Amino acid sequence: MRQSTTFKVNQKIVYPSQGVGKIMEIKERSFKDTMILYYVIYLEVSDMTVMVPVLRAEELGIRAIVSKKEAQKALELISEDFEPIPSDWKLRYQMNLDLLKKGSVIDIATIVRSLYHRSKVKELPILERKLYDSARKLLEDEITYALNIPRSEVEGLIHTHLEPLVDEIDESDDEPDNPVIEDDDDFLDPDLSEDEDDSEDD
Questions:
Q1: Does domain 12-64 have CATH number 2.40.10.170?
Q2: Where are the beta strands (DSSP E) in the chain?
Q3: What's the pTM?
């Protein structure tokens, strides 16, 4: 008897760090003399089809598109206040990369909020910029499907929710006790030379 599956054919899902995908097929294939059930997932963002064992889907963080309520909650989160993020880009990058791998819509929104905020203080290193772009694309994709509205509208919503943070930074820019705008160099590991910082951009 065929095992039950969490997802169905034609269902939209989120594959953490890969993007929004669609279950194209659920089929069995032989692997080492054992029949394994797979999800065949098409990822539009990379125009790629992947096969994921049904039994590993949860382990990999594959999940359904969030509800409209959760999508709205993610939008609200990106306009809320938050604790200052580390000025050491390496620490910041690893923290956000871990969030991206976890892949909940709140995790992704958290990355977008913090890195957008940081980019207005100091230009992001290339690796972080790529991480930000990936997270924002994931957020746009999921909210587009969750709210069932055009992508252009979602892009506008995200931008509108992020902008209040910019206003707050501008207003507090002259405050000496604002920890968010301290220069990275004050927080970098003593062993991290300027050459190492620059080499990250390669």
A1: yes
A2: 12-15, 19-31, 34-43, 48-53, 63-64
A3: 0.73
